[in-house]
Amino acid sequence: MITVTINGKKIALEKPVTILKAAEIAGIKIPTLCHHDMLEPYGGCRLCLVEIEKMPRLQTACTQYVTDGMVVWTETEKVVEARKGVLEFLLINHPLDCPYCDKAGECDLQDLVVKYGPATGRFAEGKRTHPESYDDPIIVRNMERCILCARCVRMCDKVQGASAISITNRSSKSFVEPFSGGEYNCEYCGNCLTVCPVGAIMSRLHKHAYRPWLIEKEVDTVCSFCGVGCSLTLQVRGNSIVRAVPKPGKGLNKGLLCNRGRFGYDYVGSTNRLDSPLIKKDGKLDRATWSEAFAYIANRLKKIKETYGSNSIAGIASGRCTNEDNYVFQKFMRVVLGTNNIDSVAGFAYAPAQKFFEGIFGQGVTANPMHGIANSDGIFVIGGDPTSVNPVLGLQVRAAHQKGVPVITSGYMQGLKMFSSKSLIPDTFTETTLLASLLTGLMKERPFCGLNSAFEKIIRDIQPVEIKEAEEICGITSKDISYAIDTLSVMTNPSIIIGRDILQRAEGHTNLLLLAALIYLLNGRIYLLSELPNEQGLVDMGCLPDMLPGGRPVTVDIFRKRYEEFFGVEIPSRSGLSLMEMIDAAHANKIKAMYVMGEDVVFNVPNTKYVKDALSKLDLLVVQDIFMTETANLADVVLPSLAWAEKEGSYTNLERRMQMLGKAVDGKGMDDWQAIAEISRMLGFDMDYKDSGDIISEMARVSPLHKDISYKDMADGECIWPYKGEPLRHGMSIEGIEMPDVKFPMIRPERKKIYIGMDNPLFHAESLSRNSAALHSIAPEPYVRINKALAHELSIANGDYVTITTNSGSIELSAQIDSDLPANIVLIPNNFDGKGVFAVMSWRMNPVIKSPAMDFTEAVIKKIKGAEVLT
Amino acid sequence: MLSEKAVVEINQIKSMYHDAQSSLLPALYVVQREHGWLSPDAVEAVGDLLNVPKAAVKGVSTFYSMFRHKPMGRHLIQLCTNVACMIMGAERLVDILKSRYGLEPNNTTSDGRFSLVIMECIGACGTAPAMLVDTDFHDNLTEENIVEILEKYK
Fold it and tell me: How close does chain B come to A531, measured CA to CA in Å?
């Protein structure tokens, strides 16, 4: 036990902390500038100087640790005089432009000068000048205001790991600069904005648009972009969002955000938002009233159901809608319309992967707290770059690596390039062989634990692949593969991070089995990357063709009976169609009506032309969305819905934490669930929900998993797996799981051909970011990533325009040359109007996991013109 | 960007140190020797080669005054004007460089022959004023002998 006395107050401490921390515990505030709770102690600004008895000079409280019996004084005359001196020095160069500076009102330096003075400075020479930099689309840099506390640089280096900025030059000419000196070209996480104590680094999005004291309300909510579910606060004035900021220490992101969360909120206020229901008349969508639209939908649905039967109707839910919306949606489809034809893009990879792992290991096996990644003793990443798919989760991997935790990555991952102990980049589409060789190697090193003998038998039956063979097929040296095996084999509880790329393959199910085997052998914790904020919610709310709310299979009689009894109706005992099956069935005229809630099916499903054809054949297409999407363009009725910041409800993140959204502004649309409830009423089934809280309480009675949960639990942060309900106990047996037959060698890609793949850019999010001016200003142009050697062979230079032609279509894109990408694949993002990868990508159904396999689409690349010719 | 020779040399330097960051200064010297200055492309190439973030390389290279960040003339004059040299007339030497060669501090003559950088003490106070021309040291400079010395550098 350590006892210190600060300002006469005795404090007992368990272990040594800094004086600053000890004072904080005692409720004594010591002023700081360079110190920030998210950063390591620095001792640069000298503002936290304190007097310690028996020590000759003043000491910095942020770096000095307490010792037993220490007596500290924080506000003596000597201390106050020193602080005044430090501030006088800072004000030599810091301009007194507070009336004009956006930071005024929330500026640490301003507050400190008000408290400690000095009123005037003695320095007669002029202040240094440095023009404000507007070279960047997002960040304004005013280096005259910079006090060189280096918080931003330390944040960028040590926490974000982007290392995009540094202090350049020295002495009074020191400035914080990105490499280019102008544009940042960084990850645009904006975490430097969070830590800047003065107005030196500011966001351009709201420059001179507000004053901190004019913010009318602050609404705590959860980010709407990816499956991590970061907490953020929306600051609102009038009916518009002024900015999105994190709260230090709050939420699972602990004050960090990524570019999408921090800057992407502006889609809510986009002028492209739908504001009225539309009904198609003579091939044109015309404005209509809500009641006209509801009546139209109800009548048409009723007729189609009567004529062609319930199973001629299908519904597509959305991972951007809330749990409440999705719950009501599946209830509408099952109970009101009588079909299990419900799916979403979660069915492409996230849901089947989770189902497969849960079948072997038990429900909830993927529900692992995110901070566990940085605390694990090893990390294996495959199938997607976590730093671009789920950026804040990616930071956990970087943090782990900086602590010395071994990180093995498989596949092309730019964001982890500097943060992996071994980066394995197998040749295009050969991960299956690599995984099998890792498994073969590990089986020699690690014994089975014996918990699941049936699964162990399956693992033993997998045909071994020796390292030599893998070296030849995957193009990775046997030394590297052996290194990976050796590193993995000593991990006791590693984090296994899995992205969707590895599943959307012809061998997707084999990859799943191999991964499950690795996880079993290594005692790994599974993290599934999730691109949507409520992808897990889709699964848990029952928006799957084979699952009822709570992850209960619809084909199991007791679960279905329970559901039927609750609502007093009968529902089909067979699973419905998956999303890709729905598209096929629409093509074959077997599906007559489709109800799409918040999903841009045309854009987010591969092979655009095929999808468009399928949807055009429908008798009725209903679309609820916030924008006029490609899918809405084909619809018979379009209903404007509310955006994330305009509604109440909850999201379930990838660690299965349920979190509440906060309503910040009013929208012109209608809640998705409310529109569905209205239509349901017209179809003769009353859904009487006063608000979203009513839905959650009904859901808590329907889903055995969510028994007794409430908004209060969510607000208290207690809605984490396994909630209070009953998880499905079917782990550790493998009955009923379809096990793939693993046979090597697999189909192999030809080195001479060029295949296309999907790129997951950090700056975009599906189709949503198309309506964010801020995100578009960072990355405005669609592109194709091409390997350096391939580009050289085709005489393509960086920025040149090329055409990519496949048997599904052709698009023009600018080329981005990349030296780490395998030579026979080019990557195209799916985030730009008419230029997404899905416009040219074809797919085949994976027969086991019912998701689209998107590999082996061959492409021809032709250069059209050099970058300098265009524009 | 970097010559094969430079890459070999930098890789060899890299192998001599415990971490990549430590090999940064010697690596930058190699590049400056070869190019005469450190262009942004060269700084980036060094970062890539050593696996050090390019912004960090820029921070280090701009901190030290011995690295040049714009192209230099064929010969680099580094003249001290600190206290001892100043008292012994270094500022007059600056004037001479200007009138004779049209050379101003931090600039290069129009024929690309000389560049001038004003230094803060090169440790020759006893024999001030002093200058470095490329790597050659010259002290006891006068208004007469400075021109004589410089005329040897074409």
Answer: 28
pLDDT beyond 90 at A30: yes
| Residues of A whose CB is below 8 A from B43 | 179
Could you report the per-residue pLDDT of A63-84, keeping only the tens digit for each?
999 999 999 999 999 999 999 9
**Chain A residues within an 8 Å CB radius of B55:** 163-166, 177-179
Residue-number span of the structural domain to which B116 is assigned: 75-150
For A161, the closest chain B residue by CA position comes to B53
- Structure token pair of residue B115: 């560049």
Cα-based angle A42, A189, A644 (whole degrees, multiple of 5)? 130
Tens of pLDDT along A829-857? 998 888 889 999 999 888 888 889 988 88
ipTM of the complex: 0.87
On whether the CB atoms of residues A787 and A819 are closer than 8 A, the answer is yes
Give A139 to chain B, closest Cα distance, Å. Answer: 17
**Does residue B99 lie in a domain region?**
yes
Q: Is the pTM of this model over 0.90?
A: yes
Collect all residues of chain B within an 8 Å Cβ-Cβ radius of residue A169: 62-63
Chain B residues close to A164, C-beta within 8 Å: 53, 55
Verify that B145 and B81 share a domain, yes or no. Answer: yes
The 3-state DSSP class for residue A335 equals helix
Q: How far is the C-alpha of A391 from the C-alpha of A510, rounded, in Å? A: 28
Residue A823 has pLDDT above 60, yes or no: yes
Domains and CATH numbers, chain A: 2-75 (3.10.20.740), 123-269 (3.30.70.20), 278-344+543-715 (3.40.50.740), 362-528 (3.40.228.10), 755-865 (2.40.40.20)
**B58 plus B80 within the same structural domain:** no
Nearest residue, CB atoms, B56 vs list A166, A169, A180: A166
* Neighbour-count burial of A67, counting CB atoms closer than 10 A to its CB (0-12 exposed, 13-18 middle, 19+ buried): exposed
Q: What is the mean pLDDT of residues A25-54?
A: 94
- The DSSP secondary structure of A789-823, one letter per residue, reads HHHHHTT--TT-EEEEEETTEEEEEEEEEESSS-T
- Out of A32-36, A130-134, A345-349, A504-508, pick the least confident: A504-508
Gap from B142 CA to chain A (nearest CA, Å): 32
